[in-house]
């Protein structure tokens, strides 16, 4: 049963519904069926536009329901009880079914409609997974737009035989035709591309809008929507400059951050919450936000910069502030991609429970690696931390905590060379003991990669000067080697990759762009 305060919130949220959304449940003898019905009845009680009915012709071995709209299935099916992080997925699915809430833009929608017909996708999830809702919610929207795509959200706790037979060791895992085609977090743009390559597209389907669309001219274009980008956009628009923002998703890398305790003035927050606050702050200003976009190329031949997007859209700007941040660095060794989701993982919070009672490795001895090892030590039988250098790089307080744990060991001077499996799951790690120049192997069940970040600067290789590590070289005011192009945050050479620093650097770059426009143009 949902508590009264949550029910009151849902009444307010569902007040926007105009048409009837039907929750159609299957009959089941499973002991959790009552819990599912209690939840669905509570949700339905908050709006006369939500009905709860039983599918008289179907039975299910587990709690299960689908969402119908105007008497027809939408393609969205929940197998399990969508509690935990997935409760939000249910609420958004109801809203989106009636065309409410935040919908996918026309460019993405056109690509979805061109996917071939009659597709079924199973998303195997865990209710404790923090990455799963983003993927589930994206696929639900895709199902609504596509029209003949069935998306089954499956709580892996109910189908352990399926988990075993499919070799799933990470969530979310996406399966079609009894074969896993993706595991782990994935951005919407990459998800759509993955669906296109997996299921094919109808080349004859015409887009609803011109592909080569001119988005207009702006005084400033901010590329990136994380803390640095949000700060830059707010500062430029407050200076009276027309501002646009190109981003894959508001929040950027912050979305993947668990606890944040060092943002001055905020005792504690979490990544998704901070990302939502950034979004809210940006939305309070006249910033033209273009999400789910990537920049393909920047033309700097004239004073006014011309920007091409991968979507085929284009725009111009007098100044550009790059705040594209960084992404998790991959090992780049044999076996890493082959065993992703089957023993190779990047999120200990999401995938750690799959390794209960097993032996795992954490690659990386910095703060993120040591924090991951500490978290995993409370779940798994044994954790081995591998560090390339001769000592761990993490803060002393974290290292001391790690060393106090009885089921953790540390291997230093270790260069990971290969991940070995049996075709279904990881079995060994092969590494070079750099101190002895000797190759070693260790038996284990899983590998969590935590080796830092790589800057998202690939699209700027021919535009601004980069370091050998891909960082954008900036001066004390965030100026790059190209006039009128500025940069801030984790994508730059600015030391100490911290949220609070990125925010300050974003503001600094914005003020520099304003100053140069006023006094040096």
TrEMBL record:
GO MF, one example: NADH-dependent peroxiredoxin activity
Every Thioredoxin-like fold domain range: 125-194
FAD/NAD(P)-binding domain mapped to chain residues: 218-506
GO biological process: response to reactive oxygen species
SUPFAM superfamilies named among the record's database cross-references: FAD/NAD(P)-binding domain, Thioredoxin-like
Organism superkingdom: Bacteria
Protein name per the record: Alkyl hydroperoxide reductase subunit F
UniProt source species: Bdellovibrio bacteriovorus
